[in-house]
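Service request form, structural biology core

Requester: graduate student, group of Dr. S.
Request type: structure prediction, single chain
Budget code: on file
Notes: please return the result as structure tokens.

Sequence provided:
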Amino acid sequence: MAEITTDILLACADENRRGGIKSVYVINKDDITSFTASTVAGEYAYTAVTLSTTDDKFYEIEGELEGKSYSSEGSRENGSIAYETTLEVFCPKMEKTKAFGINEYVESCGLVVIFETYNKETADNKAFVLGFDEVMGKDASVDAIANEVLEGELQGQNGYTVTFAGKQAQIVREFVGTIVTNSGGTVSFGS
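Core staff response, request fulfilled:
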């Protein structure tokens, strides 16, 4: 059982927070060896990720501005806590290249996601790890499903909503570190 040792206090920066997800990075769960949990007292974060090989990398899925969202719902049953997690990304315009990449996500055997927010305390935005925790490890990975929409109106919706859904034993941890991506080289997060 964890002892309570931390106050949760609001600062001025908390009152001026931002919502919104800036970027989403996806990798197969089998390409992850481990995440390194912070050893700093009072920090609930990962400070590094170790990949299985040097060829492994994260892949970015871009979505429309204000077309990405994350939520989780916690429950307690039989003395255990679990969180149902959902990350949605709307990718505009149905077409073959996006369909191919989205289908790779859907057919994977589990994914780990790092999603970057618009919040920052230093030069780097805050990011969070979805699909991995200290209790379940890679068993907390998420699965992807896709919905397609092509409305009848000329100015109607046209695109894919990709949903990454899963179950974790802990709330998502902040990621304070760097990852190697397929499209952008090294990306840094956190403070």
